[in-house]
Design goal:
Two copies of one chain form a homodimer. Chain A has 97 residues and is an all-alpha fold. The first copy, chain A, is 82% helix and 0% strand. The longest helix of chain A has 33 residues, at 61-93. Chain A is elongated, with a radius of gyration of 17 Å. Chain A binds chain B through residues 5, 8-9, 11-20, 22-23, 25-27, 30, 32-41, 43-44, 46-48, 50-51, 53-54, 57-58, and chain B through 5, 8-9, 11-23, 25-27, 30, 32-41, 43-44, 46-48, 50-51, 53-54, 57-58.
């Protein structure tokens, strides 16, 4: 039976995970991730990976669940940002007079 | 004396916190946060606030430290994003022929 403290932690984890869904939707809709820092996404993804390993080592299911999902979302955002940046460079190569 | 597991958790917390520094620097340099999702920043900040309360309730110093700093960085990013968005709207109001 989870305690009220556990429930607060689970709610916190759910929020910091689902927060990346609107970012993913926005990135997909606008096809632009120029203002999103590449450094942030790389450092953040590495940090989430370490949180996941930590969760696995101490056997914490909330930490494991939250960080598996956050890592997946963060990596998709990172890949889309890079893909849209490459597309932008290709478009910029077309030198119109 | 912190265990190797503690050190891993502290490293993870340090990374997911300092990740927001390059985003803050980029936002300050470009004065543009258009591609950053407002929904993400609002939900993420609320989640970090709950992690902070959870850390205070269970008396976890790493959770408290990481989330105080992350909350401060996330709120500054949120405020700058909104400020630069308002400035953009004002500039758009100037209808050039």
């Amino acid at each position: 039976m989870p305690t009220p403290f556990d429930l607060l932690g689970l709610t916190a984890g759910a929020l910091t995970t689902i927060a990346f869904v609107p970012q993913l939707l926005k990135l997909h809709a606008t096809k632009s991730g120029r203002d999103i820092s590449l450094g942030m996404m790389l450092i953040f993804s590495l940090g989430v990976l370490l949180w996941l390993v930590y969760g696995l080592l101490i056997g914490s299911l909330p930490l494991i669940l939250a960080n598996v999902v956050t890592l997946a979302l963060a990596l998709i955002i990172l890949i889309l940002k890079l893909r849209y940046a490459r597309r932008r460079i290709r478009l910029d190569d077309i030198n119109l007079p």
